[in-house]
Amino acid sequence: MPAKLAAGNWKMNGTGAALTEIEALQSSHPAPGCDVLICPPATLIARMADMTSGSAIAVGGQDCHAAAGGAHTGDIAATMLTDAGASHVILGHSERRADHGESSADVLAKAVAATEAGLVAIICIGETLEEREAGRTLEVVLGQLEASTPDASSAETVVIAYEPVWAIGTGKVATLEQIAEVHAAIRDALAGRFGDGGDFSILYGGSVKPSNAAEIFGVANVDGALVGGASLKAADFSGIITALEASGG
Ligand code: 13P
What we know:
Layout: E1 5-9, H1 19-28, E2 35-39, H2 42-52, E3 57-61, H3 78-84, E4 88-91, H4 94-99, H5 104-116, E5 120-125, H6 129-133, H7 137-148, E6 158-162, H8 176-193, E7 202-205, H9 210-217, E8 224-227, H10 234-246
Parallel strand pairs: 1-2, 1-8, 2-3, 3-4, 4-5, 5-6, 6-7, 7-8
């Protein structure tokens, strides 16, 4: 069975004051019935990891460099994330693919570095509106999946996040049919390539909120969510965790 994961991506939001949201989350979900992860800005990882050590909340990075170290100003190596207390790292988010020109080959190299460092790599894939309207959704998503995922991937080291680019931060959620179609195709592709395809966690991301989480988690092959805006406030993220705990999946 895939692990259920509620993952928050804080993106470039939050200073030390935002750590009170983590305290609130620890109070509302001292023993969550699913895996819970927050990926804050890099500046907060160590402090958040200290706060959450021994609790059920895991902490992750939002990117890492493919190299082990060296002259890469502003970048962070995978081993630096583990050293700071991170257990996961988001890779290939569409904002990084768009803003930093990251290709699937770049994401693959980062994923290899991350998994070798002992991090779980959350590999993001998703089509643009233009690609969807051109009928290319599955071709794009499965192409990114194939090219971004290491050959040595397993359900223990890699999580896939399907995030339609047009649904991120827009309030537009993919329909349940659209989510079902893409998640089933991802599951089939993983099963075809890796023996344990059925065990990989496949997350949906894109305008997930407490009000729509339950129906999304009811879709086959949806094992959790990668949440942006609604992960910033404990009250909102808590509602999403509760929906995931309650889901049959
Ligand atoms: P929103 O939940 O704000 O749409 O962001 C989704 C996302 O990009 C998570 O990685």
